[in-house]
Amino acid sequence: MTTKNLTVALAGNPNSGKTSVFNNLTGARQHVGNWPGVTVERKEGFLHTDGVRIRVVDLPGTYSLTAYSLDEIIARNFVVRENPDVVVDIVDASNLERNLYLAVQMIELGANLVIALNMTDVAEAKGLRINVGLLSELLGVPVVSTVATKGRGMAEIVGAVLEAAGGKGRGRKVRVYYGSEVEDEVGRLVALINGTGVLVRDYDPRWLALKLLERDRQVAGEVAEAPGGAEVLAEAAKSASHLKTVTGEDPETILADSRYGFINGLLKEVVAKSVIDRRSLSDTIDAVVLNRALGLPIFIGLMWLIFQLTFRLGAAPMEWIDAAFVWTGNALGSLLGGSLFASLLVDGVIGGVGGVLVFLPNILLLFFAIALLEDTGYMARAAFIMDRVMHLIGLHGKSFIPMLVGFGCNVPAIMATRTLESQRDRLVTILIIPLMSCGARLPVYVLLAGAFFRPETAGHVIFSLYIIGAASAILMARLFRAFLLPGPSTPFVMELPPYKAPTLKSVLIHMWERGWLYLKKAGTILLAIAVVMWFLTAVPRGFPGREGLESRLEKANARFETAAAEAGLKEGTVEYDALYGPVAALKNEIAAGQLRHSIAGRLGAAIEPVFRPLGFDWKADVALVAAFAAKEVVVSTLGTIYSVGEADETSAGLRAEIADDPVFNPLVAYVLMLFTLLTVPCMATVAVIRRETNSWKWPLFSIAYQSALAWLVCFAVFQLGSAAGVGTG
Ligand code: BGO
């Protein structure tokens, strides 16, 4: 009979029972020596089973796999260089949090791991109930229960080892998610490592990148000696210092916190009683915010508070910026007169881009709040709380983090779905993210809610849109899961990093990074669209009957000037305004005629039948179609249209002009907000869906289903609302 040889390494924290397991497995067949070159004891033993000869190597007991101690270096070098068939990690079940830290690092190192959950007798005596099956499922690693002192579970270890050795490298590999900032840097380094080929034969590139960020001396030394290593080291140093600047913490601390966050989340799911003896501040806070009854109301309350603050605190600076743009527009208008160039500057650029920039305070406040939630560690809890809700829709809490990011911007949110291992979960999440109301939609809400609702109710109105977006996302996910992408969902661990007092610097940096993107967008894409929209509204210049109207205007103006001079009326008085009335009416008629006959007016009229059942006139239609470029375009386009349509030289804010338009009322305004929320994602989002799914099928599907959803929901709301007399009375 041929004998098969296997090498198994025993790893574990000191005092986890490693020696006891080793003795149980190998009995007297032991050999004691030293690890090469050092005076650290090395024990080896043998066992024979089912025609297999297993060499068991006892690794030094360690808590971690850093390069700080010789024991740790020996343990990890053995795993990497001698590539044992299986690594059995002896985990003390009564002290899971600390012991699993090593297990997680072993998985990251790429070990073919089996976990022996030892000292389960002690854990039981402490009143801990551990769901071994779930632990195994969530880690993607076989787990067996043992009591080494009583020899219990030893046969199970051997069985698991044989099975794992047979399926080496085939299991699902869990991955700790280190947060978008670290992951971005890791992604960059992995690409560089793969490109240069540095040590790729020895190490997993991701592990190498993480170790370089942790400034691991041993790994850095090896990389330095490899060809191309200098470049990798230089980039890693840049990444590490970037992370330090952005987060205010050493990458080493961030990585350790993330691993503990992962373990903390894992334990919350698999252990019935908290294993952390010392009740930390994080646990005390978690006991409240993760409470089954309180968790969800606290989360919703917090979100509500954020939107209230965004709206109320943002109101004053918004007015200032608005006033500054109105003033500049008027000043430029009187300086340049009625030339076409003046119209381009005042109506196109200031009316369009200014209309969007006005919302910068709101956007910054929203991003500030999101950054605060992320940096304190609450965001991760939100995902945990939503896990139960997410399971109802066939998704996992982990999908919720990208969805939350979607409140900021859908583009990074769709990229954040890369943390989802299951392709099906990922696709469903990608498809519903555009329903999360991104920051670009906020200006549309603030404009319309501010124009048609009292300040006390505007906040509620806006909040309702966020809720409707999230509810539609849930509903659509359920439908997609049932009909489009059915199948079981993969289990995940949700990281619960410890709470932290955020530093003002890091929150401000996060806020500014996103705010800057918004400004850049305003300065580039929105500016370009504003100019195009201005062109479409200003061209062609003439329209049938314009000459007649203009000569009537000339006469009316002359009559007005003589009468005003004779009566000695001053500008701004009631009598003056009354006398000026016919002139203003004619000016408005010309401006409105110009708009209606412009390219935009004709396009709007052509699509009006599609949108009329939703209560919109051609102006809103044009804005909605143009919004495919970016959602803020609804505001900038309305800004341009109303500026061009505004005949009076003294332009009031856009909000006042829309409020004066008889087509609008609170119901139409609400339906317009709803349409902006639900309709096709913006161009950038469509492009990122295409890139992330690597096909045109999903972005096109996204456009189709969201158009249908937006139209149907808005149709229902407008028709029912009109029938009930809402907003019109
Ligand atoms: C002493 N259950 C219980 N209850 N104890 C266990 C188990 C288990 O499953 N497994 C191991 N132990 P090592 P490392 C001791 O030595 O194998 C006990 O460092 C004592 N010694 O018996 O040495 C084990 O190799 C006096 O306990 O671990 C040992 O990983 C009083 O855990 C200890 C009490 O096991 C560490 C215990 C003179």
Describe the secondary structure blueprint for this structure.
Blueprint: E1 4-12, H1 18-26, E2 30-34, E3 41-49, E4 52-58, H2 70-82, E5 86-92, H3 96-109, E6 113-118, H4 120-125, H5 132-139, E7 143-145, H6 154-166, H7 180-196, H8 205-213, H9 217-225, H10 229-247, H11 251-270, H12 281-289, H13 295-336, H14 340-357, H15 360-376, H16 378-392, H17 400-408, H18 410-416, H19 423-432, H20 442-452, H21 455-484, H22 504-523, H23 525-538, H24 546-567, H25 574-597, H26 599-611, H27 618-626, H28 633-645, H29 654-660, H30 666-678, H31 683-693, H32 697-723
Parallel strand pairs: 1-4, 1-5, 5-6, 6-7
Antiparallel strand pairs: 2-3, 3-4
Helix pairs in contact: 3-11, 5-11, 7-8, 7-10, 9-10, 13-14, 13-15, 13-21, 14-23, 14-28, 15-22, 17-18, 18-31, 19-21, 20-21, 20-29, 20-30, 21-30, 22-23, 23-28, 24-25, 26-27, 27-28, 30-32, 31-32
This protein binds 3'-O-(N-methylanthraniloyl)guanosine-5'-diphosphate.
Residues 12, 14-20, 61, 118-119, 121-122, 147-149 line the site of 3'-O-(N-methylanthraniloyl)guanosine-5'-diphosphate.
